[in-house]
Design a protein that fits this description.
Layout (H helix, E strand, L loop, with lengths): L3 E10 L2 E11 L4 E5 L6 H9 L6 E6 L2 E2 L5 H7 L1 E3 L12 H13 L3 H14 L15 H14 L4 E5 L7 H16 L3 E5 L3 H5 L4 E6 L2 E6 L1 H5 L2 H6 L4 H7 L1
Parallel strand pairs: 3-8, 3-9, 6-7, 7-8
Antiparallel strand pairs: 1-2, 1-4, 4-5, 9-10
Helix pairs in contact: 3-4, 3-5, 4-5
């Protein structure tokens, strides 16, 4: 049974179509990258999976059960975690307290088990030495790591990463990619939206390209990046050529 299924999912905002009959299937343990130009509907796709945005048509199933109309909290408890492009931690709380809030509110786990989950998320994301630091004092890399830690603290089976490498230096991207590969090795299914294509290629086994709210390619990274349809999407393929060279 697939872990996640999207069946002809559609969404529009006024006259703007952001998802037009998108169908997608993920198996447990997959690592899938999503590429596409700005405005392609990538983040909206995540929001529909996580429940932040309601679909206009179609169906979403998680572990074989319909979640199309389930609340965000219910989807989180079922095993869907996500990060956001711009990390917005509780700046007045410590790094540990931010992770603990995620455990309490996302997983509904409290007491000693809750604290252990929060600490484990910090260990896995390389933040344990900063556990007592105020989140507001973190630089961008550590804010990105904390965003990841908060998602991990909810105990996801499916982790949606939204441009988590954006704005980082090349070295910071390498460090963060190593963390993500470790998370996948622990059995978490990864779906990663990213414009830093080299980061995706070092992590995922499959790429999906969205453009104009439609799926224009789905396959191995090399197949997708060499696709004529994908090259047209990227206005001549400058990003693609650099990534596959």
């Amino acid at each position: 049974m697939p872990l996640l299924q999207l069946k002809d999912v559609s969404k529009r905002f006024g006259q703007v179509v952001v998802a037009n009959g998108v169908s997608l299937q993920l198996e447990a343990g997959d690592a899938v990258g999503i590429v596409g130009p700005n405005g392609a509907g990538k983040t909206t796709l995540f929001s529909m999976i996580a429940g932040d945005v309601k679909v206009d048509a179609g169906e979403i199933l998680f572990k074989g059960r319909p979640i199309t109309r389930a609340a965000v909290a219910a989807r989180c408890r079922a095993g869907i975690g996500r990060t956001y492009q711009i990390p917005l931690p509780f700046e007045h709380l410590s790094v540990f307290e931010n992770a603990l809030v995620a455990v309490h509110q996302g997983a509904r786990v409290h007491g000693l088990e809750g604290s252990e989950r929060a600490l484990d998320a910090l260990v896995r994301t390389g933040l344990i030495d900063l556990a007592n630091r105020p989140a507001g004092a973190l630089g961008l890399l550590h804010r990105k790591r904390l965003e990841l830690a908060r998602a991990l603290a909810t105990g996801p089976e499916l982790l949606l990463l939204d441009e988590i490498a954006g704005g980082l230096t090349d070295l910071e991207v390498v460090e963060l990619t190593e963390v993500i590969r470790g998370i996948r090795a622990d059995g978490v299914t990864i779906v990663w939206i990213e414009h830093v294509v080299r980061a995706l290629l070092s992590t995922v086994d499959r790429l999906v390209c969205l453009a104009g709210g439609e799926l224009v390619a789905d396959g191995s990274p090399r197949e997708v990046l060499n696709s004529e349809a994908v090259r047209r999407v990227y206005l001549g393929g400058a990003i693609i050529n650099e990534a596959v060279s």
